[in-house]
Every structure is written in structure tokens, then in C-alpha cells.
Amino acid sequence: MTSVLFIQSVIWALCATALGISYWNYSRYVEAKRDPEKSRRNLQIALYARSDAGIGEAEFSKIESAHYRPYQMRSKVALLVGLSFTVAALAHLLT
Fold it and tell me: Which long-range contacts (CB under 8 A, 24 or more apart) does 46-54 make?
């Protein structure tokens, strides 16, 4: 009985941790997208770097979209892991 409770608590802890990480990454992504001052400053720095390096518009668009991709990817992975552990915990709870 004790081992069953231990396994359930570990699964629920992993579930809560993964969902918390997902929320944290998503909130960082939203914060990065919504901060106009920081975005404007970063855009100006990027434009200066682009003109100095001779980067074309198409390449610059790829770099710009790649800036937010890690936040989105980590959010999705953590959410998937959290939901998987939720399903596992519920299945373990029902057995």
C-alpha cells in the first residue's frame, strides 16, 4: 500500500512540475512578445547588426521567427509531458 501511494505521489509531482514548467515557458514567451519597449530595442539592435553583416530580408525574417521558437517548443514539450503524466496518474489511480 505504501509503495502505491509513493508511486502515485511521484507521478503527480512529475505532472505538476511539467505543467508548471510549461506555464512558465509560455508566460515568458508571451512576455517577450508583449513587451514593446524591449522588442523595439531588440529590433533596432538586430537591424544594425543586419546592415553591418549584410543579411537579406528573407534571412532576417528566419532569424526573427527563430527567436521565439525555443519558448514555444519548451512549452509544448513540457505540456505534453505534463499531460502524459496526468493520464498515467489517472490510470494508476483507477487500477
Answer: none
